[in-house]
Amino acid sequence: MDKVRISDASWTEEQQLPPAKILTLLSDFGDRDVYVGVMKGAIAQINSRLKVIDLTHQIPPQNIAAARFCLMNAYAYFPPGTVHVAVVDPGVGSQRRAIAVEFAGGFLVGPDNGIFSGVLSQNPAIAAVELTNFNYWRTPQPSNTFHGRDIFAPVGANLASGVPIPELGREIDPATLVQLNIGECQETTTGVVGCIQYIDHFGNLVSNIPGRYVQGKTWRVQVRGLSIPGCETYSDVAVGEAIALVGSHGWVEIAINSGNAHSQLQINLQDRLEVICH
Description:
Radius of gyration: 21 Å
CATH architecture of the largest domain: 3-Layer(aba) Sandwich
Number of domains: 2
Shape: elongated
Number of helices: 5
Largest sheet: 8 strands, antiparallel
Strand content: 25-35%
Structural class: alpha+beta
CATH class of the largest domain: Alpha Beta
Helix content: 10-25%
Number of strands: 15
């Protein structure tokens, strides 16, 4: 197909621009360098009317698991049809696939490295393509180190501007998309066993155990020889004490009232924990 990029310049005064849609950005680029701004510039060159929302650019460098978690816990708060561009891409320039995925809530654009596996575990893919049609890239000769600028941001902008997903490249089986294995929680005779899947800015330790397992129950968490009470709010324990509760994201987490559970308890990603229900 001939290049049909959508841009503001292609519309005459008599024509009405399409309604502005939402495009989100998530990356590990930080805010010190110009990388995020340059991606937004690439988006604006295609359609400056798109509403671009930054989910976060403070994902720890190359931490695909953290990106997976953050996107999984953000996408449901956006209108249907939103395009989510996520770029945490340690395999940039390699043979890993660049993909776009359609699901019931919208679209995902980024590397096929498991970054979308959290979203798709809750909302399965309807269709997926490998981004092989360079007509929708910024350039047919992209940088080997910045696909966010040269492929993912332009593709996301075109997708949000109405380009159908089949136009973006070669159809692929959603079952072949890379899955990031963080482990699954398992029920026991006394509760649930799981692991730490994310550590937030406050040092709260977020497990992979859904809050539904403890709803309406008396419970505690056992981890690294500690027994931590399950409560409702941070203030249910004294300042400096450990607490387990269900966070706003819906997962069981461990926190320190007015402190940092990660540094104080020396509990890390993938560490095992058990919820004991009474």
